[in-house]
Amino acid sequence: MIVGIDLGTTHSLIGRYGDDGPTLFPNALGQLLTPSVVSLDAEGHALVGQAARDRLVSHPGASVASFKRWMGSDRETRLGDRAFRPEELSALVLRALIADAEAATGETVTEAVISVPAYFSDAQRKATQAAGTLAGIRVERLINEPTAAALAYGLQERRDGSRFLVFDLGGGTFDVSVLEMFEGVVEVHASAGDNFLGGEDFLDVLEKACLADLGLQRSALDAATCGVLRQRLETAKRALTGQASAPVQFTVRGDTHEWSIDEARFAQLADPLMQRMRAPLERAMRDARLQPEQLDEIVLVGGASRMPLVARLVTRMFGRLPLRHVNPDQAIALGACVAAGLKSRDQRLDEMVLTDVCPYSLGTQVARRDGQGRMQGGFFEPIIHRNSVVPVSREQSFFPVNPGQAKLRLDVFQGESPMVERNIKLGELEVEIDPARPPQENAVNLRFTYDVNGVLQVEATVASTGKQYELVLEQNPGLLSVEQIRSRLAALAEIKIHPRSKQENLALLARAERIYEEHLAMRDQVQAWIAQFRSVLETQDEMVIREHRLELGRALDTLESN
Amino acid sequence: MWPYSELGIEPTADERAIKRAYAVKLKQNRPDENPEGFQRLHEAYQAALQRCHANAPATPAAPMQAAPRPLPPLASVAARPIEQAARPPAAAAPPITFDADAFLHEAVARADANEPGRLRQWLESHEALWSLSLKTRVGQRWLAVVYQAAPPMPDGCFDEMLAFFRLDHAGAVPDPLAVAQRRQRMHLAWHLAPERRSALAGLLGARSVSARKQTIRSLDWLQQPFRWPVALWRSLLPQTVRTMNSLILRLAGQPPIELPPPVNPRQQAFWLQAAHGGPFTRTGAAIIGARIAGALLLGLLLGTGFGAMAIADTGKFGWALVGVMVAIAGAISAVALAFIGWSQLTLWQRRFVALGGVAGWLHFALVPLLALAALIVVDATDSPMAGWLLTVPALWLALARVLHGRQISTSLRPWLRLGIFLIYPIASLIANAVQVPVIMGNSLAGVALLAWGIDAWRRLPRRRRTLA
Predict the structure, then answer these.
(1) Which residues of B touch A381 (CB under 8 A)?
(2) pLDDT of residue B67
(3) What is the CA radius of gyration of chain A?
(4) CB contact (8 A) between residue A185 and residue B20
(5) Domains in chain B: boundaries
(6) In A405-522, which residue ranges form alpha helices assigned H by DSSP?
(7) B421 CB-contact burial (10 Å; exposed 0-12 / middle 13-18 / buried 19+)
(8) Do residues A387 and A288 touch, judged by C-beta distance below 8 A?
(9) Quick check: B77 pLDDT over 70?
């Protein structure tokens, strides 16, 4: 079975393309959204989802969230006595999701299409694929999140010949894509984004302002208090979508602090973030060569796009209201399911073809001749322009600067600055040329070929001799090699995820423990409940356990609603 | 006919037909299965669409016409909260008109403070510029201002302006080199503003009060209107020419660009010519002429002065006195002329002159020619003074060449200069004292020839290579 997975910064979802279109599978707690949080318990078993999220408060040292932001880097996180790479943490989330899918369908998951932010770099994409391998599934195809959202949206709307902009503000990433759909073709015109801008950043801003207002130092707070504060602020942020102001209350070492945030203040605090959002939008529109009036619709997806600030941003920039037909939390996952259906060549979807773009410019370093005939070096000359439709192969001729030059160094750069010093160097190719020829007759043809999977191949041909040089850029620093993945796979297999049957109980226990941390007044009571529930669990009598579970759940609900 | 043949249709201006044909063909050439076929198809599709848009400029699909200039006032997009039926609607903002030129004018004025962060905040605070279409147009206007007017602006602020209008990435501007040059020019213009002259002098490395004063004066000269008499008067001393030259090169780079206003381009050209032009350019000839005239005048003045003093002293006027006066004037003029001649000679020797032609060979063989002349003169006239006059420059140039290795230079360390001047008289004195006949002229000329020979030996293979 091929599944579609939205592996998000804060939440993840799984589903597949079934008889009645894309379907998402619920987790053990019956929810479609599984928090992308991993926690390790005392026995070294992994908890994923809501239970792990609650344990962020009660066991901050053994729990981790938002690791999608570190994908493609070497950063390791210590949970208990083991260090995890971001790929491994993602793999644990994937394993939990796969278990949910297998429980829902009874079939084995062999392959998945995973959605990634459109602006994810090569390293980040490879890390996502490695996470799939570590979770024991094949991930041949990644789909860009805005494209996925468009697939879901397009299928729902069945509108033909429309152009739209997908605005995807997730928990940790911001993506913009301009697309067109016609005659069963989904064509991406342009993508742009910011890999480090999402709902979490808005939370950071609120946290900083709150602590500053109350005269508290973040370093003086323990991890549990921070966890509580963040969850309270998250609630307040969500509340601001419906009301003008929201109160925040939390306790530090017995002192209760109260704070409140209103819309105007939030808008002011978030202004730097809103300013950062302008760049990708302006870029995507320019690259798509479209005027705002030419867009048929602006679609908002991603949980953080629910903020009224975002709708206002779109209105200010495009002079019109955004549309939000799709459930912003599920759109990407539904689109990933459609992509999975396309991948398995589902008969119902055969009429669809998707074309995507390369979000970065790739090129080489050149010297330019100015008006006075002087050569000035260090300029970036794009060969594959940003937002070219992939696969793409382009060739350009370059000439030596000086007469009598015997070698030509061709650097390969990725980036958007017109000066190479601000771009990323991917590699270089040294080509031998005939020094006797005059420079203008000594061309070297440089060909860049970029395939659907993001592999760049660089080929240089000396025009006079026909001699060829080649460079394939697949390796990225900060990535695992095949052998490393294999050894990590074995190590990761030792970490068990609790069976689904137990997860409801574990999630409830985690929740009770979180509430124990948060509610000082009722601590003894909550502790007694936890002890009681633990002893009931030991009886292993399903009937009794279920009864107690419902009872404890209700009790905690009452406690939290007060 | 390409591109329509690739799409399998007759040439058409119907966008829908092109898209339909593309969709059909695309399903046979999927990007993941047939990359080459897909790329060919996609290029044809793009070309067909472009032709279709070019032929029908009135269709709504192509309103990307150039922004009309000057920009018409535009109604801003009022920011209104959306989809909150439960909330009271915000008071409708009155339509704002946006004056792009006034905005850019103020941006330039604000950039003068050189605080990029504050400039960015100010730019971002413009509500009207949230609108994509307006911002694109204002950005194009800014680019036109940069190309045409290039107002003074520090580079940090220039970068902020480019970044704000998203013109700071590859492909956003047609010619990045031109923009980079404008950026440098605008930055220089900002530095050169009269009120920042003192700070600029500090940046140029003038530490002491007098050095700072001198740099400020030189900057002032560069900005004055050009007048020949004033310029020639200032360029009388070679030291001034050197200072002005190095100041211009530090500002304008090597090779120099034309400095922006307030620098007067004629002043820049004059001082560069004065330093590099040589005696055969208009400026060079004028300066040499002025210097010669100056030297003669100085000699005449001093001679007359001495004469007048002598007459006042003795109260008598005699022809002998006139003779002394003329001799003094002549001697002073001769020394001054020798200096001028020497400075022109070193300037010429310092320049790279390719072999071949009379000038080239003369340039190359100046040292042996001087040495030979010295030998002949000493031999013929038996005057050690004349020999000394010719040997010293030969020795100087030869030693400078040898000691500086690859680069062509004529400068020597002070103790070496002194040595060259003194070795002849001292050796003569010693030779006279100990009554040993030493043929100083010959041996020193020999040293010069030897040094030149070593240098020529070192250089010749390189010359031959460049010639080939």
Answers:
(1) 170
(2) 38
(3) 26
(4) no
(5) 4-55, 100-191, 195-276, 278-351, 353-468
(6) 482-493, 500-518
(7) middle
(8) yes
(9) no
Identify the three-state secondary structure at position A399: coil
Range with the largest mean pLDDT of A225-239, A318-332, B271-285, B309-323: A225-239
Q: Hey, are the CB atoms on A289 and B26 less than 8 Å from each other?
A: no
Place domain A360-466 in its CATH homologous superfamily.
Substrate Binding Domain Of DNAk; Chain A, domain 1 (2.60.34.10)
Interface check for B53 against chain A (CB to CB < 8 A): the answer is no
Q: Is the pLDDT reported for residue B84 higher than 50?
A: no
For the record, the structure tokens of A173 come out as 């990433």
Residues in chain A with CB shorter than 8 Å from the CB of B26 are 185, 353, 355
Give the gap in angstroms from C-alpha B19 to the nearest C-alpha of chain A. Answer: 7
Whether residue B31 and residue A391 make contact (CB cut-off 8 A), yes or no, is yes
Q: How many CB atoms lie within 10 A of CB A346?
A: 16
Domain ranges of chain A: 2-197+272-357, 360-466, 500-561
Scanning B340-369 for CB atoms below 8 A from A yields none
* Test the A interface: residue of B158, B165, B166, B467 with most A CBs within 10 Å: B166
Contact across the interface for A182 and B23, Cβ inside 8 Å: yes
Give the residue numbers of A annotated as catalytic, written as ranges: 6, 68, 145, 168
Nearest to A308 among B16, B30, B81 (CB): B81
Confidence of residue B3 (pLDDT cuts 50, 70, 90): confident
Can you read off the two tokens belonging to residue B72? 């018409």
Considering only CB atoms, A389 lies closest to which of B42, B170, B173, namely: B42
What is the structure's pLDDT at B42? 92
Cα separation, B301 vs B308, in Å, equals 10
Tens of pLDDT, residues A324-382: 766 788 889 999 998 898 888 766 676 778 888 888 889 999 988 876 677 788 889 99
Q: Tell me which residue in B64, B130, B171 faces A382 most closely, judged by beta carbons.
A: B171
Q: For residue A232, give both structure tokens.
A: 């309270």
pLDDT in tens, A162-205: 888 999 998 888 999 999 888 888 889 999 988 889 999 999 99
Q: Can you tell me the ipTM of this complex?
A: 0.80
**pLDDT score, position B438:** 54
User: Do B110 and A339 touch, CB atoms closer than 8 A?
Assistant: no
Token readout for B460 is 């010749």
Say how many C-beta atoms besides its own lie within 10 A of residue B404's C-beta: 14
Strands (E), A19-61: 21-24, 34-35, 37-40, 46-48
Q: Are the C-beta atoms of A341 and B150 separated by less than 8 Å? A: no
> Percentage of chain B surpassing pLDDT 90?
6
pLDDT attached to residue A97: 94
For residue range A5-26, what is the model confidence (pLDDT) as tens digits? Answer: 999 999 999 999 888 888 999 9
Q: Which residue has the higher pLDDT, A483 or B26?
A: B26
Alpha helix segments (H runs only) across A75-216: 86-105, 122-134, 145-157, 199-214
Instruction: Give the Cβ contact number of residue A411 at 10 Å.
Output: 17
- Closest to B386 measured CA to CA, from B424, B434, B431: B424
pLDDT tens for B324-364 read: 777 877 887 788 788 878 877 877 777 766 666 777 788 77
How far is A405 from A400, CA to CA, in rounded Å? 7
Angstrom CA distances, A329 to A34, A242, A300, B18, B304, stand at 11, 18, 10, 36, 102
Asked if residues A52 and A39 have their Cβ atoms less than 8 Å apart, the reply is yes
Nearest neighbour of B82 by CB, restricted to A291, A311, A385: A311
Residue A74 class from Cβ within 10 Å (0-12 exposed, 13-18 middle, 19+ buried)? exposed
The CA angle B435-B438-B441, to the nearest 5 degrees, is 140
Domain A2-197+272-357 has CATH 3.30.420.40: yes
- Res B75 pLDDT > 60: no
State residue B424's pLDDT score: 73
pLDDT for residue A326: 65
